[in-house]
Write a structure and sequence with these properties.
three-stranded mixed β-sheet, chaperone
Length: 238
């Protein structure tokens, strides 16, 4: 073989390319594997990507759903607020009805106190004294001189009876509207219900105990209409 023929053979062999398994162009099996991977990725992502119009509609739907949730929460809050307002209005109406006569009853208590003082001003010894007048004539035979036969003690008894009946009737009327008196003598002093007029040391009595009640207290329903005016046992150790 000549030198020229050997050179041409070398050039022809140098132009041939050899591909290894790791380098070079991909084989058909590699392309199939990539196709399967793409299919798996499509399965993982789920449905195909929506169009721009569909994406816009989905975004608007999410916004509207958020507005519905917000409006529903506000509506429930307003409903609860309205129910509370109804309950408060009903309670205030009931309280207004119960305590509508508070001012009138408070002013009327002065009259009750005056009647009570008038009853206490008459000694029990006078009321228990037998009348000096003789037996009164029968009702069917009235005597024109009956009024002249009465003694002053008899007139006093009649007046006391009338005042006592008026006092009792007035208390019954107040009781009908929920106004009740209370006498705290012997109870522990309570500044919310009692008004201390004086303090006095009393042996054998617990300090802070109500010793005497000058004026009865009055309650209207569960409220204090007027505090009782009392005397309190003084603490001698202080």
């Amino acid at each position: 073989m000549s030198r020229a023929q050997a050179f041409q053979l070398y050039r022809s062999l140098a132009g041939v390319r050899y591909y290894s398994e790791g380098n070079g162009q991909p084989s058909e099996s590699a392309e199939a594997k990539k196709g399967e991977e793409k299919k798996d990725e499509a399965k993982d992502t789920g449905a195909p990507q929506p169009s721009p119009a569909e994406a816009e509609c989905l975004e608007k739907l999410k916004v509207k759903e958020a507005e519905v949730v917000d409006l529903t929460g506000r509506l429930r809050y307003l409903q609860a607020d309205f129910l509370n307002l109804q309950r408060n209005a009903a309670r205030e109406k009931e309280q207004t009805k119960d305590f509508a006569i508070s001012r009138f009853a408070s002013d009327l208590l002065e009259t009750v106190d005056v009647l009570a003082i008038a009853l206490k001003s008459v000694p029990q010894s006078v009321l228990q004294t037998p009348s000096a007048e003789g037996p009164s004539p029968p009702p069917e035979q009235p005597s024109p001189s009956t009024s002249q036969q009465k003694t002053p003690e008899a007139y006093l008894k009649d007046l006391h009876t009338g005042v006592e009946m008026t006092h009792r009737l007035l208390l019954q009327t107040l009781f009908k509207y929920g106004v009740k008196p209370f006498d705290p003598t012997g109870d522990k002093f309570d500044p919310n219900r009692h008004e201390a007029l004086y303090q006095a040391p009393v042996p054998g009595k617990e300090p802070g105990t109500v010793l005497d009640c000058q004026k009865d207290g009055y309650m209207i329903k569960d409220r204090v209409l007027r505090a009782a005016q009392v005397g309190v046992v003084q603490d001698t150790q202080s």
